Automatic annotation (TrEMBL):
Keywords: Signal. This is Polysaccharide synthesis. InterPro entries: Caps_syn_GfcC_N (IPR046459), Caps_synth_GfcC-like_C (IPR010425). Residues 97-187 form the Capsule biosynthesis GfcC-like N-terminal domain. Pfam families: Caps_syn_GfcC_C, Caps_syn_GfcC_N. Residues 207-289 form the Capsule biosynthesis GfcC-like C-terminal domain. It comes from Enterovibrio norvegicus. The keyword NADP does not apply. Residues 1-47 form the signal peptide. It comes from the Bacteria.
Amino acid sequence: MKSPFLCTQTGQFLKTNLLDTRRALLNMTALFAASVFCLTLSGQAIAAEQTKVTVTTSADATRMYHVAFNGAPRVSQVVSQGAAVIRANANNILAHNTDTVYWQGAGLFDTANTPELASLKKAVTDNLNKLQEAWQEDAEKHASVTALSTFLAESHFQSRIQVPLDEDFYLSGSKLNPLVKGDLMLVLPSRPNNVWVIGAVAEITDADFQPDYVANDYVDIAETLNTFGISDVTVIQPGGELEIHQTAYWNQIPKNLAPGATIFVPFQGLPSELSSLNRDIPRLLQHRVM
């Protein structure tokens, strides 16, 4: 015959174990639910981290294409996909399999309005307005500044991501192939046939590209305002690279200009508080979309 005391102890022990087991199961259920919830949130976050790329041939093109990547792609992937889209939608195929993309003028831009670019653009715009006021008594200089202000106002600017964009560069197996992310714009233009001359000139000059011309040849075409001669100009190559080209007879070193380049002729006799314009305008033009 079993002892009542033993039965009572056994019952309490079983009850306690059952309660502990129930608590453990509840805790496991809660942990599982939390894990599922976290995984769901992670999946949503991954989906939300898509990199979207608008592909176009120019800032004012009527047709634009869109490519999306999960996560952050390599530049080579963006270039390859973008080129495939442009080629697939080209109106015609150039002779001798010539590429429809002018890689020297290609640009990858962050479409977000970065504070640095916004600040630079505002500084240039404000200082050009002040220069117009300072030179309002000189009709020729005033007209030159007005023309430059109009040129910049009609241009499209985005934050340029300075990376190589030639497709062959990546096909050769370059180790320089960074990740990019965000809302991007890839501009893959066709080859232009002009060179811009802007800045201290009587009027903005859209000169025909000549393969044997150097900066001084294009400057000679434009009527400059500098009465003391020009020793150098700033060249913004179509890919956004900044270069100083010497133009005086005593310091000239011939350098190539690519089709689509912009030559900025610096202003002379600027008020001291506006002297940064000769530096800031070329920096802004680096972010100009072809």
